[in-house]
């Protein structure tokens, strides 16, 4: 009996499943990290807005690919950041759209 051939076949069967799992964990980690970073960026945006910076200056300070929308709603100013994240794990795009769109909104009272 040749045990080396059996081990090779088992390895070849398990390898794609293992790679999909690892890439899925990497993608979900990237999404969570980007969401946390976007939360921090929106806090910075509100601080810059309160300091009197223009919307163009604030947009230049953002990371590449981050979109900013500032709107007025009744007595509130609503800040909305959007960023798209590419999914690399095969099959994960069946659960998440590719690219996955992250959105963070905050509002402050207009004074």
Describe the structure.
With 111 residues, the chain is α+β, with helices and mostly antiparallel strands. The chain has one domain (3-109). Helices cover 50% and strands 24% of the residues. It has two helices and three strands. Strands 1-2-3 form a three-stranded antiparallel β-sheet, with helices on one face. A hairpin with a 2-residue loop joins strand 1 and strand 2 (76-85). The radius of gyration is 22 Å and the shape is rod-shaped. The relative contact order is 0.17. The mean pLDDT is 90.
Layout of strands and helices, then pairs:
Layout: H1 3-50, H2 55-61, E1 67-73, E2 76-85, E3 100-109
Antiparallel strand pairs: 1-2, 2-3
Keywords:
111 residues, alpha+beta, three-stranded antiparallel sheet, 3 strands, rod-shaped
The class by helix and strand makeup works out as alpha+beta
Q: State the major sheet.
A: 3 strands, antiparallel
- Major beta sheet, strand line-up: 1-2-3
Summed up, the helix count is 2
| Tally of strands | 3
- Alpha-carbon distance between the termini? 82 Å
Strand content: 15-25%
Report the C-alpha radius of gyration, rounded: 22 Å
Shape: rod-shaped
Average pLDDT: 90
Which stretches are poorly predicted, pLDDT < 50 over at least 5 residues? none
Order of helices and strands: HHEEE
Instruction: Kindly give the count of domains.
Output: 1
């Amino acid at each position: 009996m040749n045990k080396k051939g059996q081990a090779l076949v088992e390895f070849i069967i398990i390898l794609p499943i293992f790679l999909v799992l690892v890439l899925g964990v990497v993608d979900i980690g990237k999404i969570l990290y980007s969401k946390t970073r976007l939360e921090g960026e929106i806090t910075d945006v509100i601080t810059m807005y309160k300091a009197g910076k223009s919307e163009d200056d604030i947009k230049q300070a953002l990371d590449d690919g981050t979109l900013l929308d500032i709107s007025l709603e009744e007595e509130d100013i609503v800040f909305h950041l959007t960023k798209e994240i590419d999914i690399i794990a095969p099959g994960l795009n069946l659960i998440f759209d590719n690219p996955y769109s992250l959105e963070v909104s905050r509002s402050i009272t207009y004074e």
